[in-house]
Design a protein that fits this description.
Two copies of one chain form a homodimer. By secondary structure, chain A is mostly helical. The first copy, chain A, is built from seven helices and three strands. Chain A binds a DNA duplex (30 and 30 nucleotides) through helix 1, helix 2 and helix 4.
Amino acid sequence: MYDQLKLENQLCFRLYTASRLVTQAYRPLLEPLGLTYPQYIVLMALWERDNQLVGDLCRRLMLDTNTLTPLLQRMERQGLVVRTRGIADGRQTLVSLSKKGLALEEQAKEVPACMVGSWKCNPIEPEQLMPFLNTLDNLINTLKQ
Amino acid sequence: MYDQLKLENQLCFRLYTASRLVTQAYRPLLEPLGLTYPQYIVLMALWERDNQLVGDLCRRLMLDTNTLTPLLQRMERQGLVVRTRGIADGRQTLVSLSKKGLALEEQAKEVPACMVGSWKCNPIEPEQLMPFLNTLDNLINTLKQ
DNA sequence: GCTAATTAAATCGTACACGACAAAATGTTA
DNA sequence: TAACATTTTGTCGTGTACGATTTAATTAGC
C-alpha cells in the first residue's frame, strides 16, 4: 500500500468530490428556473456580455465545442438563447440571449445568496476565502498551460 | 448586471473548472494503464482495502449506485475487478480486485509524482497546501449534510 | 483564380453523473 | 407466517465531458 495512492492524500479526489457536491447543492435552486448548472454558467457568461461567438464562450468557460455545441442546442430548444450564423464570417455562430434568457437574470440573482444561506455552518472562514480562491486560480492557470 | 452573478465571483465555477482540468491532466498518465479517472479512484479505494461491497464504495467515493454500478460493470468487462453476489445476504454485491487490477498498483504508484512533476511552475505553495485541503474538506463535509 | 492550409463549429462514440424508478432479498410484526 | 416495510443493488433516461473526426467557410500561396 503506497501512501501516495491513498484517497486521503489526493488533491484531485477532493476537487472532484467538492465540485460534484456543490453542483448538486445548486440543483434545487436551479431546477425552478429550468436550468442545469452548466446551462447556468453559460447564462452567466451571456448576462455579463450578450452576443458572443461559440468560440468566445469556449474560452470563457474553458470548455470545448464538443461540449458547448450540444449544450447550446439544448438551450436553444428550451428558448433560452438564439444561435445565428455569422454574417461577416460564415463559419461563426453567434449566441444571443432570448427574451426568456434575459428575463431569467432577475430570478437568478437570488441564487448565490440562497446557496450560501443553505449551509447550516459556514464551511469557509471569511479570512480563508481569498487564499482559497487564489489557490484555485493558480491551479486553473497552471493547468490551462 | 449583478455582481453576485459574475463568473469571477463564483466559487463553484472555479471548483468545476479546476476539477475538470485536473482530471484532464490525469488522462495522459492513466491512458497507458487503460484507466479513466473514476476507474482510478475506484481502484485506489480497493487497493486500500480489497473486497468491498458496492455500498461501501458508494460511501467511500460519495457516489450513488446509479453511477457506480455501470462503472463497476465496465471495469469487470475490462478484467479489473470481479463482482460476486453476497453469500450471507443475497442483496449485496462484493467487489474484489482481479489479478490484473491488483498488479496495476505497481504502475499506478508513479502517477501522483508524475502529475506534480508535469507542472512547469508550482500552482500551490507548500504552506498553502494544508489550509487549501482543509477548506476543501470543510466544504465537502458541509455539503454531505 | 485555383488549390492547399487554416479556422470555426458541428458530429460521433464512449464514459460518466444523477434523479427517478424497479427488482430482489431480507426484516418486521401482528 | 403472511403481509408489509426496509435495504441493497440495478435499470432507465437525460445531460454533460471529451478525444477524434468531419464539414463548411475563409485565407494564403502561387
